Amino acid sequence: MAEQANDLMEKLVSLCKRRGFIFQSSEIYGGLNGCWDYGPMGVELKRNVKEAWWDSVVRQRDDMVGLDCSIIMNPKVWEASGHVVNFNDPLVDCKGCKARFRADKVYHVVFFENGNPVHAAWVEADDEQSAGREAFNRANSKTRRRMQLHQEGGRFETEIRRVDRLPSDVKALCPLCGHELTQPRKFNMMFKTYVGAMEDSSSIAYLRPETAQGIFANFKNVIDTSRMKLPFGIAQIGKSFRNEINPRNFTFRSREFEQMEIEFFCHPSQADQWYAYWRDARFQWYLSLGLRSEKLRLREHEPAELAHYAKGCADVEYAFPFGISELEGIANRTNYDLSQHAKFSGKDLSYFDEETKERFIPYVIEPSAGADRATLAFLCEAYAEDEAPDENGAMQKRIVMRFHPRLAPIKVAIFPLVKKDGMPEKAQAIYAACKKASLSAFYDEKSAVGRRYRRQDEVGTPYCVTVDGQTLTDDTVTIRDRDSLKQERIKASEVVRYVQERIGAGGM
Ligand code: GAP
């Protein structure tokens, strides 16, 4: 299972590089851990993800406005929000090989057979489930076979303990070399910089670790200028930065990433209702763009997992090949943030309800998503291998990215069957019409048409149009569906409408 998952991730990473979705940042200099660049296909895909989000939470609603705040803000923002003191990860170092880990990502896993320990391992993993899988992979083949045989017999038991929850007298060991790990210590994840010419403590500023605080800091500006009345939300898409101890799983945990965040302000008495509303609405959004329900789940946090100011929190999780992991968190943040900013700034951030004549600090429901994580989930979901006929009708293996048409980087590719007899000119005219309609289109006249189809399948283009001999007599073209492989003949003048109807709202 785990091998298959690694295999899938490897194939996906390789396709992302080969076809221009995602590259390592500054690759020609050996890269930079935790930073990624989106290539020509990736930038279109991620842009479509962000557009779909913005359309659904801002443009399609009348209770939401947008914002685009600066990345570097007055450092007091981060004192008020608690990030300067609390935005820490527990860090452990290996005393032998000097590797660094997040203590909450290192596990000790022990397998017992009939109550006796038969295999133990220290592993680095995102959660208990992945830790168990990783430890299983490290067991010798005999133990693995016995465990598989007895999986349902109940003779095997597993104990999984996180390093930062071990009793202090238990020595934690390095998952890489087996030497002892240090005790966990706090490591603040905000990137520091200096503003202005002086590099001293008075000029320290931070790259924002979340976009949310820019929204809170502008709450009064928006109220005063937009005439929004409660309940209403403010949405923002933008870069955030976290000095993650161990960036991993491709773009899943990066040091520079993009967030898509909503702060939805409401009366405290309505917070529970809005929390449930946003939790369900956000879950549905992922489904509507093609993530399968069996791979998605909504997980309510246990009370012990909640931040001290939060009244409720649920994660939308996706079954990535490397394990079930968080895509988005929806939290009831109470009036914590606005109260903190009111206290630290000395400004009144309360809201006056004209109808009830009540003055109060609104509660906030926060659906906070990652644009890169969502994009990675859509990439994982889309990847498929199957067979398609080549130009001679023989079945050939193909890789196909089955993106939801709305997310596909290219919506339609246009090919002349051959480079003569006026076919390129006709195909160019259809291509121009698609561009004019703001459809992301691609023109290709090189190599055999079967190969051209295959190249489009690999980047997930839902429709390919071919201009052939018949086009020159009756002005019809074939249009091929990426998934069903069916080809229809339609009028050349109908191509734009045909594609627009099938890719859903927005065109793009
Ligand atoms: N304002 C709340 C907040 O920032 P979070 O759970 O820390 O909450 C929200 O982050 C979302 O941002 C996550 O669900 C994830 O999608 C994305 N995210 C957080 N850290 C990330 C990282 N290091 N790399 C990529 N995406 C990340």
Count of DSSP strands: 26
Structural class: alpha+beta
Strand residue content? 25-35%
What name is given to the CATH topology of the largest domain?
BirA Bifunctional Protein, domain 2
- The CATH architecture designation of the largest domain is 2-Layer Sandwich
- Would you tell me the overall average pLDDT? 94
Low-confidence runs of at least 5 consecutive residues: none
What is the CATH class designation of the largest domain?
A: Alpha Beta
* Relevant CATH superfamily of the largest domain: Bira Bifunctional Protein, Domain 2
Write down the domain tally: 3
Ions, cofactors and other ligands present here are: glycyl-adenosine-5'-phosphate
Largest beta sheet: what is the strand line-up? Answer: 3-12-13-19-16-15-14
Query: If helices are DSSP runs of H or I spanning 4 or more residues, what is the number of helices?
Result: 15
Word description of this protein:
32% of the residues lie in helices and 30% in strands. The protein contains 15 helices and 26 strands. The longest helix is centred in the N-terminal third of the chain and has 20 residues, at 40-59. The chain starts with a helix and ends in a 5-residue tail after the last helix. Glycyl-adenosine-5'-phosphate (GAP) binds next to strand 13, strand 16, strand 19 and helix 11.
